[in-house]
Amino acid sequence: MQLPNHLLFSEIEKLLEEGHTVTLRTKGSSMFPFIVGGRDSVVLQKAEKLQKGDIVLARLPGKDYVLHRIYRLRNEEVLLMGDGNLCATEHCMRKDVRGKVTAIIRNGKTIDCEAEGERRRARWWQRLLPLRRILIKIGKYVCT
Q1: Which of 123, 118, 74, 108 is nearest to 94 (CA)?
Q2: SS3 of 122, please?
Q3: Strand, coil or helix: what is 100?
Q4: Helices (H) and strands (E) in the chain, counts
Q5: What is the CATH number of domain 5-143?
Q6: Which of 7, 38, 54, 64 is the most buried if burial means most Cβ atoms within 10 Å?
Q7: For the segment 3-50, what is each residue's pLDDT rounded down to a tens digit?
Q8: What 3-state class would DSSP assign to 10?
Q9: Is 136 strand, coil or helix?
Q10: Where are the domains of the chain?
Q11: Higher model confidence: residue 63 or residue 93?
């Protein structure tokens, strides 16, 4: 069954706010290589404590929802960027973050987003931003 995004995400928001965990199949390529749309699913929980490097579901002002990584937290402002993006970022407020990805499910295997190894890989990926264009092309070639 397919639902329009605004209906689906409003229900997801309610479930997360009630303390439920939600597993969602992903679409798109903005989080490649960490999340591959159409293949991976993510496990979302209510976002209580946020830190740089977290993957979050945020509702952008005047836009739809995005599932991107936190690149910077400054007081109440949050800067987001997809791992597959080369320069595009989004700004929102902490209150706009609806959920936090705690795990990625890939081919039946669960990847713990809180594990130190996974957080280290995310930090390295952020540092490799100048080389991302090349690395993404190689990664997509290898994954197909």
Answers
A1: 74
A2: helix
A3: strand
A4: 3, 8
A5: 2.10.109.10
A6: 54
A7: 777 788 889 999 999 999 999 999 998 999 999 999 999 999 999 899
A8: helix
A9: helix
A10: 5-143
A11: 93
